[in-house]
Amino acid sequence: MVDAAFLALSVITIGSAIAALELRSMIYGSMALMGTLGGIAGFFLLLDSPFIAMFQIAVYVGSIAVLILFTVMLVKRELIFKKIEDPRRKFAGIGLMLILMMGLGSIIIDSGLRTIQTNEPAVDFRDIGEDFLTYYWPALILMALILAGAVTGALVLARREDVEDEQRAN
Amino acid sequence: MIEISSTPLIILAILGTVAIAIPLISISRKDRGSSLFYGAIALGALLASIGYVIYQFVTGNVAQSAIFSEDVLVDDAFGGLFAIAMLIVAIMTTVASFNYMRKHKHPAVYFSLILLSAIGMVFVAYSTDLVMLFVAWELMSIPTYILAGYMKKDPSSNEAALKYFLFGALSSAIIIYGISIAYGITGSTNIGEVIQGFSTLDPTMTPLALLAVGMFIAGFGFKMGLVPFHMWLPDTYEGAPPTIAALLAAGTKKVGFAAALRIIIMGAVALSLDWTFALGIIAVMTMTVGNIAAVMQKNLARMLAYSSIGHAGYILIGLSIAPFSAIGIQGSLFHILNHAVMKGAAFIAVAGIVTTLAVTNIDKLKGLARKMPITSLGLVISLLALAGVPPLSGFWSKLMLFGGAIDAGPIAAWAPWLAIAGVLNSALSLAYYGWIIRKMYFEGENEKRVKEPKSIIAVMIFSIIFIVAIGVYPDPIIQFTETAVPNLAALSP
User: Fold this and answer.
1) Residue A35 maps to which CATH number?
2) B202 interaction partners in chain A (CB closer than 8 Å)
3) Residue (of B34, B486, B44, B35) closest to B265 by Cα position
4) Is A113 domain-assigned?
5) Does any CB of chain A come closer than 8 Å to the CB of residue B132?
6) Among residues A23, A50, A81, which one ends one of the domains?
7) Nearest CA in chain B to A136
8) pLDDT in tens, B417-449
9) By the 8 A CB rule, do B459 and B348 touch?
10) ipTM value of the model?
11) How far does B208 lie from chain A, in Å, by closest CA?
12) How far apart are the first and last CA of chain A?
C-alpha cells in the first residue's frame, strides 16, 4: 500500500515538476508547480510527519503558489521574457540529471540505509517548536532577518521608477 | 545556552537593529535622505561591532580556537579572526559606497543589506551547528543577490544578479542536501556530534558520509569559486556594482573557507579520508585556471575576478595540507585576512575609476596615475601585494602557505609541488598585474588630474597603510592567526 502511494506521489511530483518547466503558458506552469508542492506534502505524510505536511500545504500550495499565480496574471510576461531554446543544452541537462540520479541512487541503495528498521515514534512537532526557542534560538532570529532583508530588497528591485517618474511628470 | 554577551550575539544586536532601523528611518523621512546619512549610520554600527570584537581579544575574553561546541555558536578565536576580516570588508564597502551611491536611488536599503550580509558572514564563522551555519549562509547570500542586481536598469547588473542567484540557489540546495544526509545518518545537526557520529559510523553507512562531505565541498566550492564550480564568478563580479564586487570577492567568498574548515576538513579527518591529495589537485587547478584566464582579460573587474579564483587556489593549499602542517593552515587564515583587504581595495579602486571616469577597460586606463594618483597608488599597492611582492602583506601569507607545503614534504611527497605551482602562478600573476601598472604609470603622459571621490581616497589610504604595515611588521598578525588555528591533531581517530 505504502509502495503504491509512494509511486503515485512520485509520478505526480516529478510529472508536474516537468510540466511546470515545459509548459508554454505560465499560468498552467504555475498550476503544475502546485502539483509538485502538493506531492511533496504527500511524501511528508508517508514519512509520519503530518505537521510538516500540513505546513507544506498551507504555506507552499496555499500561499506561495497562489502568490506566483497572481504575479503571473498581473505582469505582462511578453515584456519580460524572451525565450531562447537550445535543444543541445536541454539534452545535456537531461543527460547530466540521469547521471546524477543514477550516481546518488546507487550510493543510497548500496548503503546500509535500506536495512535500517526503527520503531521510534514520529517526531513530535512540539519538540521542534521547543528546540527552535531553546537550542536554535539564534537561528530563529537570523531567519527573521533573512525575511526582512528579502522583503525590503524585493520591494526595491520590483519598484517601477519609470512609472513613478511619469506620474510625477503628469 | 550561549551567553548573551558573547561576541556574535552582540554583533547581531548592533548590526541587526541598525539594519532594520535604516529602511524605517528612510520611510519616515520626507526627503528620503542622502547616501552619506545612511552610510554614516551603517559605518557607525560596523565600527562599534569591530571595536567590540577587538575589545574582546584585547581583554582576553576569547577562547582559543575551539572546533566544537554544545551550542549553535562558539565565541572563539577562529570566528573572531573571520569576524574582523569580514567587518573590515564591510567597512571598506560601506565607506566606498558613500560616493558611489550618491547617484543611485534607495541608499537606505542598500546599506541595510550590506549590514545584513555582514551579520551572515560573521555568523557562518562562529557557527558550530549545521542548521545555524545554513541559516547564516543564507543571510549572507540573499542580500548580496539583491545588491548584485541593484543597478536594475543596467543589463549587465541584471545578468550578474541572475547568474549569481541561480548558482547560489543551486549551491544552497546542495549544501542542505548534504546537511540532510549528515543528519540522517548521525541524528544530530551539531557539527561536533556529526563529526563524532562520522568517526564511529557503521561501515555500510560510510558511502553516505562521503556523499555528504562531497556535497559540502561542491556547495561551499561554488561560493569559494573553486574550479570547476567557478563559471558564474567572472560575469557576476564584472556586472555587479564594483563596491558590491568587493564585498563578494573579499567577503562572501572567504566565508566559504570558514565553513569548509569547520565542516569539510574536520569531517574528512574524522572519516580518515585521503582527501588531501584531491584538494591539492583542486588547488592547483583553481590557481592555474584563474591566473591563465586572468592574463587574457581586457576588463579590469573581470581580471580581478579571475585573479580571485587564483587566490582561492592558494588558500586551498593550506587546507589540503592541514593534517600535515600547522603552518599551512595558519597561512590560509593569514591569506584570507590579507586577501580581504587587498582584493577589497582593488575592487574599490575600480569603483572609484567607474564613478569618476566610467571606464573599466584596461586599455583606457592609460595615464591613470596622473588623473587619479591616490586611487592608482592604492590599486598598485594592492596588486603588488596580491602578487606577493615583498615587503607587502601578501608576501608573508604566501610564504607561509608555500613554506607549509614544503614543510609537509616528508609526510606527503606531493605537497612541495603545490608550493612550486603556487610560485609559478604568482610569477604569472605578476605579468598581468604589471601590464595594468604599465598602462597606468608609463603611458598617456598628457593626462590631467581629475577630482577623486573622497570616500574612495579614504579606503585607499587605509588599505595602503594596512598592506604596508603588515608587510613590514607581520608578527602580531602571525601570532593572532596562531591562536585561531583549530587543533586538528585532537580530531584524528
Assistant:
1) 1.20.120.1200
2) 112
3) B486
4) no
5) yes
6) A81
7) B72
8) 999 999 999 999 998 899 999 988 888 777 788
9) yes
10) 0.91
11) 7
12) 66
Residue B138 forms contact with A (CB below 8 Å): yes
- Categorize the per-residue pLDDT at B268 as very low, low, confident or very high, splitting at 50, 70 and 90: confident
Residue of A nearest to B13 (CA): A141
Joined together, the cell numbers standing for residue A54 give 500540513
Residue A96 in any domain: the answer is no
The range of the structural domain enclosing residue A156 comes to: 126-170
Give A62 to chain B, closest Cα distance, Å: 23
Q: How many other CB atoms sit within 10 Å of the CB of residue A76?
A: 6
A141 vs B: CB within 8 A: yes
Strand partners, B129: B190
Do A153 and B136 lie within an 8 Å CB cutoff? Answer: no
pLDDT tens digit string along A97-121?
Answer: 999 999 999 988 888 777 777 777 7
Higher pLDDT, B144 or B355: B144
Against a cut of 0.90, is the pTM above it?
Answer: yes
User: Do A65 and A133 share a structural domain?
Assistant: no
pLDDT in tens, B369-407: 888 999 999 999 999 999 999 889 999 999 999 999 998
Asked if the C-beta of A96 comes within 8 angstroms of chain B's C-beta atoms, the answer is no
* CA distance between the termini of chain B: 29
State whether A115 and B204 contact (CB < 8 Å).
Answer: yes
Q: Does B425 touch chain A (CB under 8 A)?
A: no
Q: Which of A81, A112, A141 is the last residue of a domain?
A: A81
By three-state DSSP, how is residue B416 classified? helix
Q: Which residues from chain B sit within 8 angstroms of residue A106, using beta carbons?
A: none
Per DSSP, helices labelled H in B321-372 are 326-357, 368-371
pLDDT over threshold 50, residue B493: no
Contact A104 B211 (CB under 8 A): yes
| Boundaries of every domain in chain B | 275-493
Residue range B269-310, pLDDT digits in tens: 777 777 788 889 999 999 999 999 999 998 999 999 999 999
Q: Is residue A99 part of a domain?
A: no
Give the distance, in angstroms, between the CA of residue B205 and the centroid of all CA atoms in the same chain. Answer: 34
| B29 in contact with A, Cβ within 8 Å | no
Q: Are residues A138 and A65 in the same domain?
A: no
Residue B46's pLDDT band (boundaries 50, 70, 90)?
very high
Torsion angle of C-alpha atoms B170, B173, B174, B178, degrees rounded to 10: 170
Residue numbers in B near A112 (CB within 8 A): 202, 204-205
Angstrom distance (rounded) from CA B92 to CA B189 = 35
A130 in any annotated domain: yes
Question: Could you say which of B16, B72, B204 has the minimum Cβ distance to residue A112?
Answer: B204
Q: How crowded is the C-beta side of B317, counted as CA atoms within 13 Å?
A: 40
Q: Is B72 in contact with A138 (Cβ distance < 8 A)? A: yes
The count of structural domains within chain A is: 2
